[in-house]
Amino acid sequence: MRIVIPGGSGQLGQVMVRGLTERGHDVAVIGRHTDDPALRWDGHSDGPWFAAIDGADAVVNLAGRSVSCRYHWRNLNEMMQSRIDSATAVGRAIAAARTPPPVWLQASTASIYAHTHGPAHDEQHGILGGTEPDVPAYWGYSVSIARAWEMCLHQADTPQTRKVAMRLGFTMSPDPGGVFDWLMWMVRRGLGGPFYGGDQFVSWLHGDDLVRAVLFLLETPEIEGPVNLTAPTPLANRDFMQTLRKHAGAPLGLPVLPGMAEIGAWLIDTDVELLRKSRRVVPGRLTTAGFQFSHPTWGSAARDLVRSWATFPV
Predict the structure, then answer these.
(1) pTM score above 0.85
(2) 20 to 30 Å CA-CA from 106: which of 10, 210, 270, 286?
């Protein structure tokens, strides 16, 4: 397949491009830093990049400002605007195509669901967030960003193109700078204990299963609308970190307490919401459609990721 990936130069995009290319697919990355002027894009404007989408087999849009930043209002506004602008522009490109791609996968986030320690959210019964009591007000704004992202997909006038919103959990891969890389950095320095008590749930997905799930969605025409891209076994942060320490050979890990977390998040230029929000999300539609995960449990995934991380080229 010829697959076009706007925003494919980021960390998640690198996982996707590598996995799809290894499987023999022709991948074109549209973005700011590509060497090909025909694929260069500022994230919101029309341009020569429209031609890459015309006749493609699929578009997988990952464009948008990284969520790995401090969630002050300027950054939150940039996240909102970049997602609206990029998704709207991709919709215009598909609408303008003489031969529109048959499928458009649009990045979204599992953070669209409510913070919960209760039953897991699937696509049918999950409760969207933004009105939970006793959580910081700005968490609701991050949910609004996710809702706006998906609304742009829904409203795009692309009747010949099937549309899927990928509600992504934390994608775990050995790539430098990714979530797993930062977790290993903490574990190796003795900071691999539970975060904020460890009761909050972590919804995760092995990078290889992300690529396999994307291909499954591209090849399963009956699936459209929101789809949770997470492993079927979310688990509490304390169990998540204990399992990672086991496979990393670090039996002890200091807990990350309030105050410590804020300092650590500031040092790596991210926000504690990524650590504190309880994301208990399961892949109802993928499972029902028959998708088989290579790494359905965190133990299997952590063992494989630690081994890959140790030998990953930097």
Answers:
(1) yes
(2) 270
